[in-house]
Design a protein that fits this description.
With about 375 residues, the chain is mainly alpha-helical. The chain has 2 domains: about 170 residues, no CATH class; about 140 residues, no CATH class. The protein has 17 helices and no strands. Helix 1 crosses helix 5 and helix 6 packs across helix 17. The longest helix has 26 residues. The relative contact order is 0.09.
Length: about 375
Amino acid sequence: MAGVAVGLIYRVHYYGGDTWAYYDAARLLGDLPLNEWWSQLGKEEIGAFENQPRAIFFTKIVSGFIFVTRGDYWVVSSYLSFISFLSNWFFYRQTRSTLPNIKWPVIIGFLLFPSSVFWSAGILKGVITNASVIFVSAFSIKLFYRKKIHILEIIMAGLAIILLFYIKYYLLIVLFPVVVYALFDHRAHRFGLTKPLRGSVYVAILLTTLLIAPKINPNLRIMNLPQVIHTNQLQIQKANASSSHIDLLIEPNWSSLLLTAPKALVFGLFGPSIFDAGSIWSWVPRLENLVLFILALFSFGLLFRKKLWDPDILVIAALMFIVILAILLPLAAPNFGTLVRYRAPFTPFLVTLVTILPSWILQRRKE
């Protein structure tokens, strides 16, 4: 249903958009005979996409679904949406068996929250990458708790990593140190390693990630990052002067970037707010963000009142993933419409975290 809604909204309200551009380009490939379709997959330019390797790669994936199913937009959209749902369901099953006391927060965050469901459906690149992030996270939970790993799950986790690498590499760059840190810290804690030693190892993991990142994309060089963000902001500001623009323009230096980071974090977590301008469609995320903000305040109040200062390592890992993306995404894409769509990979985790303590309070009152 969400996949159909994505297609309808983009066709009726936006008169096309990315999702229909991907389908139209993929249709040209998917309708070809097998030998021609296979030979076309090796081409670098497809349809209207020029110098857009990620869009071209995703178009090839969609063409495969069209070739196999011979279906139209709605059929292919349903298949992709269902695959995305299976990834979320896999995550829910792992948390239900290992962390049953957060079953309902996970259900709300991963299976019911409107933005989580909507932006994890349809013919969009984010559908594939969101599902990949969630599957890798669920797979990591199985590793964390030393549960039996099946060969198909290893293959699927490898495929998810490959898809992240080719479609949205920055998600893989953020996810990698977080997962490695959580797995290492869990084992180190069991063997009695001190916190300073564990912290130094994580610094080493982070530095290794920063060294690897430029090999994946030159824009990820740590010294060039402020300049890359500044240039990208100017391009977006020039192309989009609408009311949905976020005022986060930085100077091309690290001091400006660091000073703007707290403001970016607020926008990344809770933007757009009910006070920001936007179309009628923006009221859904605005009301969602109001609820998230209230739940976050309530949760922080409980943390201070109950003096819960020793969070689980999985909570720390999830917070690291959320905070890093919540800072970088508004800076790299200072537009509310784009931000709501791009933060979909961490939205389920954020919803789950801010729902845990309120749900426990509600359960205790019922009992």
